[in-house]
Every structure is written in structure tokens, then in C-alpha cells.
Give the backbone structure.
Amino acid sequence: MAAANEALRQAEEANNELMGKMTGGLGGLGGGLPF
């Protein structure tokens, strides 16, 4: 289960990074929250 949680965390991290680039660093749908 821990491996699945880690994979999910990494996927979210990558998605957040991508969204940040797409929106000029505003955080996309995350509203600029720092994760």
C-alpha cells in the first residue's frame, strides 16, 4: 500500500509541476497552494 501511496504522490507532484508551468506558476487548479 505504501508503494501505491508513493506512486500517487509522485503523480500529483508531476501534475502540479505541469499545471504550474501551464499557468505561469500560479498553481493551476490548486489555487497556488505550496504542494
